[in-house]
Amino acid sequence: MSLKNKAAAIGIGELKPLKEPGEDTTALGLMAEVAAEAIADAGLEKKDVDGFLVGMPFNDPGMLYPASAAEVLGLTPRMLNIVDIGGASPAGMVWRAAAAIDAGLCDVVLCVAADLNASGDQRPPVISVQREFESPYGNIGANCGYAMIARRHMFEFGTTPEQMAKVAVDQRANALKNPLALFNQKPLTIEEVLSSRMIVDPLHIFEIVSPVSGAEALIVAAPDIAKRAKHPPVWLLGAGECCDHSSITYAPSLTHSPVKASAMTAFKMAGLERKDMNLVCPYDCYTITVIVTLEDAGFCKKGQGGPFVMEHDLTYAGDFPCNTHGGQLSFGQAGLAGGMSHVTEAIRQLMGRGETRQVKNAARAFVQGNGGIMSEQVSLVLERRS
Amino acid sequence: MSEYLKPLPKPTAISRPFWDAAKRHELMLQRCGACHKFIYYPRPQCPHCMSDRLAWERCSGAGKLYSFTVVRRAASRAFADAPYVLAIVELAEGPRMTTNIEAPPEQLRVDMPVIVFFDDVTPERTLVKFKPA
Questions:
Q1: Rounded to an integer, what distance in angstroms lies between the CA atom of residue A94 and that of residue A261?
Q2: Which of A230, B77, B92, B108 shows the smallest number of beta carbons within 10 Å?
């Protein structure tokens, strides 16, 4: 069994993130807007959509969510579900869509995520064991866990604050070419990152995603539909998934993540090597996330992620194009939709629609989705082939 | 004395012996009768071998500082008194715990030895914290 070439992405939708949504803005409203955009981008009509995978907004959660959202959108899906693996949900939707298509349950799957920036103390609900053993000590939100990963990575491998900052700097250079990115006005320097406000030592504010409101969508379709699509189809060649903890405290390691297992599965299914990739889109909730992901996905040796990002140009014109949309760090993180930005950017680039930030001869991309604190991991290998 | 406004653990049938021990200023962990591994946080069955033969054992309270962060700005208003040190301590018995370290941040080093202490944050509830050994 394999999902190789069983389905292709044929359309994308992406809204410019909003820092201050209007009073009338709702997550479902953003979801409807971006869904219509993705369906039109695929050259399809709403009636063609017969599969529906959705992420639940932190801002407006509820039980039986897929049916409620499908009703608002006016869909009649023959396969519907919520994908609840944090920031890995969108990448997880892609292979689940392909699997459902390959199993004959549906032909055109709408994958969508939208959220409103929840300000103040509104946090996603946490399970009872985290309320009991994490919250009383102030381990609330994602910042603390990633800071402790960064600290341990610095201790074990000698990773430096400058190396982590380089990720944010190169991704900002990419964002300058992206009209949809939230932070696309001025470049960033390593010195600016390191002199920015320390939030959770050793992570500065420019190394931490900015929560925003926004939405992303994509269409995954069966081969016969993909072959007559408007844009060059982007085929799923390989996918992998792994999770080995929820709270980072109980992970086998702070510095060795389940990215290793998910990426190995995806590359094996694709029958390709790391060097075959023209673009990588690793999940970037924090700078350290990119460094750990590049190591565990096998793009460099374990512990060498810091020197690797210093030695390579991660911009769209560089020798290792990485998060060419600016990453979430410069694009903005609209809840689960933030994790779809890596997927839609890879699809956009492979379709040759990167405009002023187009990666030359981009034919193959690696995407990593990451949920929680390096917890749920999904790897995708994608290829443009007409 | 001002009111304690931070989140407090709500013990369950499974975890109550841990929190009751903390109130007595003892560190008690579950240990698996089948594979003999220590377990934290308290579980309904052993996460290593799925045995339900779990018993409570008193632990040394010694460990090392696996990692830590100095939280300058907290995600929750309950911790508006930041900075505070959030840490993962690896106990001598094996398991890791989320906790706080009471020490000036500049004295902290990854893998340094630490020792448990018990913080009676309210008359009813005691949190398990650590300080440099």
A1: 18
A2: B77
Cis check: omega of the bond before A202, within 30 degrees of 0: yes
Contacts of B132 (CB under 8 A, 6+ apart): B101, B103, B107, B108, B112, B113, B114, B115
pLDDT tens digit at each of 133 positions of chain B: 578 999 999 999 999 999 999 999 999 999 999 999 999 999 999 999 999 999 999 999 999 999 999 999 988 889 999 999 999 999 999 999 999 999 999 999 999 999 999 999 999 999 999 999 9
- The interface predicted TM-score of the complex, written ipTM, equals 0.97
Torsion of CA A8, A13, A19, A21, to 10 degrees: -130
Evaluate if pTM is beyond 0.95.
Answer: yes
Determine, yes or no, domain membership for A127.
Answer: no
Number of domains in chain B: 1
Number of domains composing chain A: 2
Closest residue in A to B5 (Cα) is A136
Residue of A308, A386, A311, A305 lying closest to A352 (CA atoms) = A386
| B38 close contact with A: CB closer than 8 A | no
**Are the beta carbons of A249 and B98 separated by less than 8 Å?**
yes
